[in-house]
User: Which sequence fits this backbone?
């Protein structure tokens, strides 16, 4: 019997701060189990062995040994590049997945903000000209954020995290990023980072973005839907007492990312694993074969619950 799996984080220093990849099978960045009798195995190895028991029947048929999502925490100590990700159709030309993602803001400094889309409708020529004249910020939509804010960053939406934000990022398993503008900034190697202007202009959504942040209400001891998308669904659970989650009707793995506080994850229908404890910024993967789960907070906790339908 499988059990809730916890993985060693993959730490990635960046010129603007740091990423921690929590669950991944992307390229060489293979998550390694750190708990229970499966410790030391990569997630890809486990999917190859346990197949639909681990990820769900339809997901295994579609993705095989590749885990379809990638979970990160991001600490933006400086502004990230202004960038865009291609959708599945464009990415398929490169034999990759597109990249739609969502952010949950786990920390924000006072006056922190992010970039989400254009502040008015624009077009390819105007964006190209603004890049040449270094006026791209004039048409960016700058959105103030605070802890608990969330945004769905659909493929094609121009975006950037900015200095003083920390987020949980849930995304398709892809690293296709087209940098539109990067402040003439050198990378960790001292060289100017590559831009991908033509590719970015080919996949941008040039429409104005209305209400860029997700509007949700999440009082204590409730669940709220944040994203319901073809690539992933995300709910946020806010609770100060033990809760049970029933996945009998779900043919998918479930990932838990602790957004705030501390929580213990226990499979009531499992036999082979001990409960796992998640602190803020940590994740656990619940195999699809486990259906009866109890979440116990230490005080009050917020947990992101992610699956595929």
Assistant:
């Amino acid at each position: 019997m499988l059990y809730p799996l916890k993985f060693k984080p993959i730490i990635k220093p960046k010129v603007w701060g740091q990423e921690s990849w929590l669950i991944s099978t992307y390229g060489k960045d293979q998550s390694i189990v750190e708990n229970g009798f499966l410790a030391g195995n990569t997630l890809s190895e486990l999917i190859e062995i346990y197949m639909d028991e681990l990820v769900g029947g339809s997901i295994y048929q579609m993705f095989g040994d590749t885990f379809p999502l990638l979970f990160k925490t991001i600490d933006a100590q400086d502004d990230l590049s202004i960038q865009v990700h291609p959708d599945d159709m464009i990415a398929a030309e490169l034999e990759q997945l597109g990249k739609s993602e969502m952010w949950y803001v786990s920390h924000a400094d006072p006056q922190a903000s992010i970039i989400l889309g254009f502040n008015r409708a624009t077009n390819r020529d105007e964006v190209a000209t603004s890049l040449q004249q270094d006026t791209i910020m004039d048409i960016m939509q700058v959105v103030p954020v605070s802890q608990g804010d969330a945004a769905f960053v659909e493929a094609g939406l121009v975006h950037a995290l900015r200095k003083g934000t920390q987020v949980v990022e849930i995304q398709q398993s892809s690293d296709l990023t087209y940098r539109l503008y990067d402040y003439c900034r050198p990378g960790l190697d001292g060289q100017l980072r590559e831009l991908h202007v033509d590719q970015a202009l080919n996949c941008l959504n040039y429409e104005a973005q209305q209400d860029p942040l997700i509007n949700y209400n999440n009082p204590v001891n409730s669940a709220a839907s944040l994203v319901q998308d073809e690539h992933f669904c995300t709910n946020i659970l806010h609770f100060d007492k033990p809760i049970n989650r029933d996945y009998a009707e779900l043919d998918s793995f479930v990932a838990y990312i602790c957004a705030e506080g501390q929580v213990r994850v226990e499979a009531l229908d499992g036999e082979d694993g001990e409960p796992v404890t998640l602190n803020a910024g940590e994740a656990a993967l619940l195999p699809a074969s486990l259906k009866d789960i109890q979440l116990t907070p230490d005080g009050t906790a917020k947990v992101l619950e992610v699956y595929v339908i």
Observations:
- The mean pLDDT is 96.
